[in-house]
Write a structure and sequence with these properties.
single chain, mainly alpha
Length: 174
């Protein structure tokens, strides 16, 4: 059983890192406030985008942690079956998610009385696609490499990386 002191000692650094990333996210949000208000679909898309990408971070981290505990990771991480499988599965899903989120946010904005322009939809699709793919790639590398590093340090990668990858998703989606 863990004591309160052990939980605090293991969690404080992760909480500080996640809080700093969240603070930076808040500062970025306030700096782009005018842009968000000019394009209502962006306000709608932001929570969906950071939630989706954050969930990818949770999936990658938890799948990699499980593979580590089951001793399925041997050699270089990018040659492992789990890394190849995750990458092969997550890229098409993230592309589909990006398009789905972009279209849905534009439709919702249109239903709520904001005008619809095909060029705005295309711009939002491109922005969402680039953001999603780049964040999934970044989170993929952080989650895989971080899981291996933290596991070798005899700590649980889930406890450390899930808050960090979701904070990266929040920051990056802004």
């Amino acid at each position: 059983m863990f004591t309160l002191k052990q939980i605090f000692e293991e969690s404080i650094s992760v909480l500080i890192i996640a809080s700093i990333l969240s603070l930076i996210t808040g500062l970025l949000l306030s700096s782009i406030q005018k842009t968000l208000l000019m394009i209502p679909a962006l306000i709608i898309i932001l929570p969906a985008l950071n939630g989706t990408v954050g969930n990818f971070g949770v999936i990658i981290t938890s799948r990699m942690t499980t593979a580590l505990y089951e001793k399925k990771v041997k050699g270089l991480w990018y040659h492992t079956k789990i890394a190849k499988h995750l990458f092969k599965d997550l890229i098409p899903i993230s592309v589909f998610s990006a398009f789905y989120i972009a279209v849905l946010s534009t439709v919702i904005a249109n239903i709520n009385g904001y005008g619809f322009e095909i060029m705005t939809l295309l711009k939002i699709m491109i922005i969402t696609l680039i953001t999603t793919i780049s964040l999934v790639l970044l989170i993929f590398i952080v989650a895989i490499c971080g899981s291996i590093y933290i596991y070798k340090k005899k700590a649980d990668p889930d406890d450390v990386l899930i808050p960090i990858t979701t904070s990266i998703a929040d920051l990056g989606s802004v």
